[in-house]
Amino acid sequence: MTAADPVDRLLATARGEPVDEPFRVTGVMVQYYYVCERELWFESRNLEIDRENATVVRGTRVDETAYSDKRENLNLGMISLDLLDDGRVVEVKPSSTLTEPAEMQLSYYLWYLDRVADIQRDGVLAHPRERKREPVVLTAERKDKVETAIGGIHEIVSQSSPPPAEEKPFCDSCAYHDFCWC
Amino acid sequence: MDRNYHVFSDGRLERSDDTLRLVPDDGGEKQYIPIENAEAFFLHGQIDFNTRLMSFLNDRTVALHVFGWEDYYSGSVMPKRGQTSGKTVVNQVRAYEDSQHRRQLAAAIVRGSIHNMRTNVVYYNGRDHDLDDIIEELEAAAARVDKELPVDELLGTEATARKAYYRSFNEILPSEFQLSQREYNPPPNEINSLISFGNSLVYANCVSAIRATALDPTISYLHEPGERRYSLSLDLADLFKPVLADRVLFRLVNRNQISDTDFETELGSCLLNESGRKTYTKAFEETLERTVEHPTLNRKVSYQYLMRLEAYKLKKHLLTGEEYDPFQRWW
Q1: Where is the DUF83 domain (chain A) (predicted)?
Q2: Pairwise CB contact (< 8 Å): B296 & A181
Q3: Residue A40: which of A143, A146, A144, A163 has the closest Cα?
Q4: Which residues pair with B23 in a beta bridge?
Q5: Any domain includes A16
Q6: A133 falls within a domain
Q7: In a domain, A76, yes or no
Q8: For A15, phi and psi rounded to 5 degrees?
Q9: Fewer CB in 10 Å around end: N or C, chain B?
């Protein structure tokens, strides 16, 4: 028997159906898929990141403090997302650099809600430090893109070793920097 | 985040609001210790503490290393990290069980260890000492290191090299401080006791470095797992002893900063007294804070951080299969 399509396997895992090899994709894995494939592979192995890393500390702080009175955490098994009090899904990021990865992370949440829980919601990408909010809607095009990404993620995390290190402009601020380059 | 604090007095270590306070037993002044930049506390005296302190240290990911009778390392209280990694431990064990893989890692550690011993001898060779024969012996030992050798032979090669290396101490140090022979439990003379004390500090720092990753400190490659204490820490400490402990020893003794008044000598044993330990740890901590330009990280890193990087390198090797290249002093 050939391995099932990654999207089907992910959906079966999320719905709690019996699966030979469960396949889980978290929101942050979708983000890393667009940022750095090596980081995605590390994340898939639960590799501990340097929590004292300045960027991580800043991101955690922004996430914990922004709109704290207006949102509610919703844990859905493999994903955990925040709902605003108007029902939209919000993803908080400290800055608007690397917008596409953040948009795709949010798109994945919307896709997951739609496909797993049959709930249709809109999203909002928030950059509180820049006082910016952008709406994100799950269009047909975004749905396709999410499903392509799931296939791509599956391919990377199935490898027994990570893609080789590749120097990128944001490597310096990455929590895996020293681990990657030592 | 990387300062070590050593507490030599007896007393009580406690949380006081959002910082730490040391209350000495002798009624001396209370001392406040900033926790923000602390990596670990080394307790050399008799210290009381409670669970409130433990939770606080845990939140701030600060370790406690305890030294007991005659300042032997007796254990650590480590922060529970946010994440542990079963996968890391599984891979660690797999590498141990695969005898070829284990030999390869053990050989790498011995190779790095001999290289770092040799660097010390070469440094002193030009300075009024003739150590050519010892350098030759170390090179001969290094040439025997092969990843095909069984682990006990690799251990034997390391021991032979270390024996030759320790002979250089008698040349490097003034005649009133001679090592003659490496002995411990208890150390019979001054140099042996300095080596033992220094090694225990290197060892405890390696424990901290390992615990900052999800590596299991009891699964090791050169030493037998769990043989004594945290055996993975023994593996890594071998690489760092020449760079940290031995250089501090040479410096302090040759500059007369340590003298016979810094020891307590009893029948068959010789140990550093409190003033000796203070002098030593001060110089040791200064060494940990020294920095060196790192060839691949493109920044300066402290000697202390080199131990953390070593744990990262090992973990990376175990998880990704990318080659493990042992720490070899490059400067």
Answers
A1: 26-182
A2: yes
A3: A163
A4: B12
A5: yes
A6: yes
A7: yes
A8: -85, 0
A9: C
Q: Which of A47, A162, A182 sits opposite B296 (nearest CB)?
A: A182
Q: What are the start-end ranges of the H helices in chain A?
A: 6-14, 27-35, 37-44, 54-65, 99-117, 140-158, 177-181
Beta strand pairing status for A132-136 and B31-33? Answer: unpaired
- The reply to whether A167 touches chain B by the CB within 8 Å rule is no
What integer pLDDT is reported at residue A1 of this predicted model?
A: 39
Distance of alpha carbon A134 from alpha carbon B326, whole angstroms = 49
Query: CA B200 to CA B192: how far, in whole Å?
Result: 12
Mean pLDDT of B314-321: 94
CB of B320 within 8 Å of a chain A CB? The answer is: yes
- Mean per-residue pLDDT for B55-80? 86
Q: Do A178 and B82 touch (CB under 8 A)?
A: no
pLDDT-based confidence at B213, cuts 50/70/90? confident
Number of domains in chain A: 1
Residues B126 and B122: their CA atoms lie apart, in Å, by 7
User: What angle separates helix B274-289 from helix B303-320, to the nearest 10 degrees?
Assistant: 60
Q: What's the Cα-to-Cα distance from A142 to each of A102, A104, A146, A150, B129, rounded to whole Å?
A: 13, 8, 6, 12, 73
Query: What's the start-to-end Cα distance of chain A, in Å?
Result: 42
- ipTM, two decimals, is 0.81
Kindly tell me if the per-residue pLDDT of B28 is higher than 80: yes
Residues belonging to chain A? 182
Cα distance between residue A52 and residue A177, in whole Å: 12
Is A1 among the domain residues?
A: no
Q: What is the CATH number of the domain that holds A162?
A: 3.90.320
What domain range includes position A129? 6-181
pLDDT at A48 over 70: no
